[in-house]
Amino acid sequence: MTLDLLKMRYFAKIAELGSFTRASSDLGVAQPALSLHMRGLEEQLGVQLLNRTPRGVVATEAGQTLLSHAQAILRALDQAEAATKEQAKYPTGDVSLGILSSICPTLSIPVIKECSECFPKVRLTISEGDSQALRVAVDTRVHDLAVTLDSVAKSTSAPLFEEMLYVIGPSGAFASDATLTVEEALDLPLILPTRRHGIRILLERQALMFGRELNIVREIEGVATTKAAIRAGLGLTILGRGAIHADRENRSLSAIALTHPGLTRRLVLDMPVNHPPSRAVIEVRKILLAVVRKLGAEGHWTCLSPKLSGTL
């Protein structure tokens, strides 16, 4: 036997107000219709729920029992409706965003600030990692979103931007009008990450094309440590434009773009497949794309056109 929610709402209102007339006015339902609903509910339960008196109606003992349950159920439904509407307006929940280590300091801070201002109830966690680790994290749904290299991301990933690659040296190491080809860069004393990293893989391929060997003087995992080693005069490195934009601005490092041809890498937005994103994930994704566009306009990288990416 299933109780009719509408009948329970009508019954609760009548019992609370003690009057069919007042309940009819409050609910906007004709009094004969209310009486019909109540007779149907009493017949369904096989018990009298309301006593009619000259002063109105009062709930019977059985009616009081039903009323206490009905009020709890209706209150829970009202709370569920309010919470759903609140979620639609102000999404809540956890969102995990993974970002390639070399650009995480640049990209993560404005995303965090914007998300905190627009959606304070969204709990955003940002993790940095190399492209291989980010791919695994997306595949296992550890991350809801990941900004990573297209060379390791799924084919369903959305292109975001192109990064020019630069040779990075200590402050004043390069003249402002200097140029450097990719082939020439292969002979430089380079500090590079291990072979699992995207830039190392890209440079190994370039060396193979030229029939050359990379001149690796040190292997260091971590962009911050690599930059510190460069400042200490321990070698040079090759990084994307987004990773050294601030260092070029404050002149703590010097950089020269690789030319003839220019060497770039494409970054993409990767997401789990066959797993519909939550409202919170959708909103964080929108913020991320807006920040990518803004930073691109400031010169951190070259954003891909909407025609290419379909998402920007």
TrEMBL record:
Pfam families: HTH_1, LysR_substrate. It comes from the Bacteria. Signal peptide: none annotated. Keywords: Activator, DNA-binding, Transcription, Transcription regulation. Residues 1-60 form the HTH lysR-type domain. Gene3D superfamilies: 3.40.190.290, Winged helix-like DNA-binding domain superfamily/Winged helix DNA-binding domain (1.10.10.10). GO terms for biological process: regulation of DNA-templated transcription initiation. GO terms for molecular function: DNA binding; DNA-binding transcription factor activity. The keyword Transcription regulation applies. Coiled coil: none annotated. Belongs to the LysR transcriptional regulatory family. This is Transcriptional regulator. It comes from Phyllobacterium zundukense.
